[in-house]
Write a structure and sequence with these properties.
Elements (H helix, E strand, L loop, with lengths): L9 H9 L7 H11 L4 E4 L6 H14 L12 E4 L3 H14 L7 E4 L5 H9 L4 E4 L1 H9 L10 E4 L2 H6 L3 H10 L5 E6 L4 H10 L4 E4 L10 E7 L5 H11 L5 E4 L3 H13 L4 E4 L5 H12 L5 E4 L14 E4 L7 H7 L9 E7 L4 H11 L5 E2 L16 E2 L4 E2 L33
Parallel strand pairs: 1-6, 1-7, 2-4, 2-5, 3-4, 5-6, 8-13, 8-14, 9-11, 9-12, 10-11, 12-13
Antiparallel strand pairs: 15-16
Helix pairs in contact: 2-3, 3-4, 6-8
Length: 427
């Protein structure tokens, strides 16, 4: 369906055409009409399907229809996101799509001066994009007034719950006007997501553009089994042998991300790490350099699984498999965006076979496994279960014991590069 047939105003159709929106995506076709009709939405959509445009365009149109409120500069739209990067991206989208409209958007998140944000908030804005914790900081300081919010958007709601924001979200909802439109977007569904939806959505229109907890069909998956101590060398080999220019790599811990970036740099691959211990300025610079191809490899923890919008990113690598299988969906959603082809490679040590099985169970599909010549696994290595830091319990031992092949590979020659860092699960 052409984008200009969705019932949007001439100003929005104009900017959509200028930004290359010719044909609407499934989430846009299904979500925009009911949003324009003032309905609450519960949308299940894979990341990279164009969902930001699916709520930003109709929200801007709804705001335009209330002429009296246009010049008030009071917060009429509140968008909550789990990460700083996603918040910045959504704010930029509103600025881009609203180029020919008189609305002002602003973004607040942690890691930067709250005083500067307070000064700007006092000048007023129509659309506020925020992470939950920093927004509550502003509420406590009375630097933001949410009494005029007409539309609430929870973007990547599942990730916000994973990161422990459920109490903050409930606090924010409690101070918002009772009469408002609610839009909830989530890449995966869980019992907690359903409970939150039931508590805040009123007779919602349910939109699902893909099977729940699924990945895009245009992403090719594969897993290489390898000794834990040989993963870094294998990654360098894969990037070098294929002459890859832009690779996003996910690790489980912050220390692991720093250590891997250093290793890749020593192998001649310009790399940079981003995670929760980095300042917001450092994270922003690293992402910008990666997008501009000044950095070849971006190593990240799961904090970067949401909010990274990189056009035509060809490859995502899981250096460590995530402890929570849903995080696999979020990670590889960075590739294969907007209909482009993508590839997801997982480096799997023997002690991660149960994690791989959990991912396959979630996706309801088998991920092809292979052995790279020269990196065959040493099956005599003693099994050591990774610790799930969410519940502090070891992952169960794979069936068959440590001495049997679990469908993977690993090199016996490299030595460990150091102790694995501990994670608090927050990136």
């Amino acid at each position: 369906m052409p984008f200009d047939t969705l019932g949007l105003s001439p100003e929005l159709v104009r900017v959509a055409a200028e930004k290359g929106y010719k044909v609407s995506t499934p989430i846009q076709r299904q979500a925009i009409p009911p949003i324009l009709a003032g309905r609450d939405i519960l949308a299940g959509a894979q990341t990279g399907t164009g969902k930001t445009a699916a709520f930003a365009f109709p929200i801007l149109q709804l705001m335009s229809q209330n002429a009296k409120a246009i010049k008030t500069r009071k917060v009429r739209v509140l968008v909550l996101t789990p990460t700083r990067e996603l918040a910045a991206q959504v704010d930029e989208s509103f600025k881009t799509y609203g180029e020919y409209l008189p609305f002002k958007s602003f973004v607040v998140f942690g890691g930067v001066s709250i005083n500067v944000q307070m000064e700007k908030l006092r000048k007023g804005c129509d659309i506020l994009v925020a992470t939950p914790g920093r927004l509550l900081d502003h509420v406590e300081r009375r630097s933001v007034d949410l009494s005029n919010v007409e539309i609430l958007v929870l973007d990547e709601a599942d990730r916000m719950l994973d990161m422990g924001f459920i109490r903050d979200i409930r606090k924010i909802i409690a101070i918002l006007p009772k009469q408002r439109q609610n839009l909830m977007f989530s890449a995966t569904y869980s019992t907690d997501i359903k409970a939150l939806a039931d508590s805040m959505l009123k007779s919602p229109v349910t939109v699902e553009v893909a099977q729940r907890n699924s990945t895009a069909e245009n992403i090719e998956h594969c897993a290489h089994t390898v000794d834990k101590t040989a993963k870094a060398k294998l990654l360098s080999y894969l990037i070098g042998s294929r002459n890859l220019k832009q690779v996003l790599v996910f690790t489980r811990t912050k220390h692991g991300a720093d250590r891997l970036a250093k290793h890749l740099a020593q192998d001649g691959l310009k790399s940079v790490a981003i995670h929760g211990n980095k300042t917001q300025g450092a994270r922003t610079r690293a992402l910008a350099e990666f997008k501009e191809n000044k950095v070849r490899v971006l190593v990240a923890t799961d904090i970067a699984a949401r909010g990274l919008d990189i056009e035509q990113l060809p490859l995502v690598v899981n250096f460590d498999l995530p402890m929570v299988p849903e995080d696999y969906v979020h990670r590889i959603g960075r590739t294969g965006r907007a209909g482009n082809q993508g590839e997801a490679i997982s480096l799997v040590s023997i002690d991660e076979n149960r994690l791989l099985a959990d991912i396959e169970r979630l996706l309801k599909r088998k991920i092809p496994q292979s052995v790279i010549p020269g990196f065959e696994p040493d099956l005599t290595i003693k099994y050591q279960a990774p610790v799930n830091h969410r519940n502090k319990r070891p992952t169960p031992r794979p069936k068959g014991g440590a001495g049997k092949r679990q469908g993977g590979w690993q090199s016996a020659s490299p030595k460990s590069s150091g102790r694995r860092g501990r994670s608090n699960g927050r990136g």
